[in-house]
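Researcher: I've been going back and forth with a colleague about how Porin might be arranged in three dimensions. Neither of us has a model we trust, so I'd like an independent prediction. The organism is Halomonas citrativorans, in case that matters for your notes. Sequence below.
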Amino acid sequence: MKKTLLATAIIGALSATAAAQAATVYDQDGTKLDIYGRIGLGIEGGGSQYSDNTYIDSNGDLQGQRINRSGDFVNVGSRLGLRMSQAITSDMTAFGRLEWRFKANSQDAAGNGFDQLRQSYLGVQSQQYGTFQAGNFDSFYLQFVSSPFDVYINNGLHFAGNGKQSRGDSIGYYTPDLEGFTAFLQLKNYSERGYVEDPNAPLSSGQHRTTEQGNVIAPQGGVRYENGPVTVGLGFVEDVQRGGGNGEMMYGLIGQYQFTDQFSARLGYEGRGNSNSASYANYMENNPTKDNGYNTVGLGATYTTGPWAFTGDFYNINRDDGKDNSKAWSLGGYYKVSSAMDVFVEVNDNDAKAGNDRVGQQFDNLTDDAYWLTGVRYFF
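Model: Here is an independent structure prediction for Porin. You can compare it with whatever you and your colleague have in mind.
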């Protein structure tokens, strides 16, 4: 099997410490198939003192039961994927991608093997006309706006991530590079085809009731500018309730400047309007740890030297609806053992306070401990 080292996929400094490798299974007459993946193992500990909507006190007690929050051996983003492409013309290429997650830390955790379909999409790319794709993929907002802050393996990103109104039933388009500018647009469809029309009807196995909203389209779009050391992304997402949002528009303006080959700094803002709808108020009542409107400002930096990379980020999260602000921080250290292996340690504190406005109930004065994760990853 012929093997070639693919170009490194840079996503912040963390990716700079671990070159993305792949095995080319087939490459002939414009048709190519690569197989790639990684195995990640680690130990984690600490973290939030509450789980979902249930408060856990400082001793780890939950409804009279002891909750073990000590260190634990865990899987760290292990996955296996395929990249496919075929040249249509000298300018146009058809492509596809298929990627699964699996748990590598134990046989019991792995179950029958793969536990999630992470990516599955098809598309056409042209250097002249741009790229169109459809299926299940990371949000374009992450790819073109919030990606400078996406440098942590776990828990460090406090701007919108890869699943924001994305991951399935989506179509998207982005332009080719236009003198440093790239514009993008993505549409996510939430369908009720096949649902039970009567919202009061009893449900049989596998059925779902329709909602008052019916089918919903969640758009996101914006523009990114890249020129030399400067990267700036401006984007929006209609954060519909069907996709876990509050029904209001979310905006982001995030940038990065590469001062030297070793040092870069990033600054960003993201905000979402406050919803006054009755349906979201009811949702918040049943999910007190969720946020409504917010304004988040993030500041971070990355420094690399030889095989080492270090990251640090700080976020100020200003919540609406009378909830306390949070000052979250993250630190990371990464060592490149070889072109295919790295070891790492991350520490972050979300300063979680969502839900502490429910005076007199068990959600009062929620706090959290610093979360830590250390481990090793091998890329192939």
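Researcher: What would you highlight for our discussion?
Model: I'd start with this: The first helix runs from residue 12 to 16. After that, consider the following. The helical segments are 12-16, 107-110, 140-146, 278-286.
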